[in-house]
Design a protein that fits this description.
The protein is an alpha/beta fold. The protein has two domains: 66 residues; 84 residues, Winged helix-like DNA-binding domain superfamily/Winged helix DNA-binding domain (Arc Repressor Mutant, subunit A, Orthogonal Bundle), CATH 1.10.10.10. The chain contains six helices and six strands; from the N terminus they run βββαβααβααβα.
């Protein structure tokens, strides 16, 4: 007898907050995608096809409400750490890098070498950069907090302007303390 497996669904919505527009997506396990600022549906669709081949994309504002709420709180300066469940998939190396990113405190930055050292792989600086570039969860897995060793802003899936705005937002909130 052939066993039939249900194809998991990916639920999505568009978050509008304080001038930001981001596509969010989640599975039943947690948030799996945060798009770039003013990025289109095509970015979500292409990512989902690559990472969750064959899974339907279903618009559902209600299922994404708790995730959207935490991001809105972040944009409004009311949240510094995310508590929402995440459902990210990658290689063991990517997962180690993404976990290390989650340890960077709000309002602080690290360089690529810091992340390589944190995962006990100091020679993997370039690979760390590649793993950061594959991070599907912008903002919530804070890859925007990684900068070049000379202090310059470096590549970011959401674009350097988005990265600059996120760092400025966090710096402004840091200064209120």
């Amino acid at each position: 007898m052939k066993k039939i497996f249900d194809t998991p669904s990916i639920y999505w919505t568009i978050l509008h907050s304080k001038g930001w527009q981001l596509y969010l997506a989640a599975t039943t396990k947690g948030l799996c995608f945060v798009g770039s600022e003013n990025g289109g549906f095509e970015g979500l669709s292409l990512w989902a096809q690559k990472k969750f081949h064959g899974c339907p994309l279903i618009e559902d504002d209600h299922k994404l409400e708790s995730y959207a709420d935490e991001l809105i709180q972040y944009f409004e300066g009311q949240r510094r750490k995310f508590t929402l469940p995440l459902d990210y998939h990658g290689t063991p190396f990517q997962l180690a890098v993404w976990d290390a990113l989650c340890e960077i405190p709000f309002g602080q930055t690290k360089v690529y070498m810091d992340i390589a050292n944190r995962i006990n792989n100091p020679k993997a600086v370039r690979a760390v950069g590649a793993a950061i570039g594959d991070n599907p969860l912008l903002i919530t897995v804070p890859c925007h907090r990684v900068i070049g060793k000379n202090g310059a802003l470096t590549g970011y899936r959401g674009g350097l302007e988005m990265k600059r705005k996120l760092l400025e937002l966090e710096q402004e909130e840091q200064n209120y303390l």
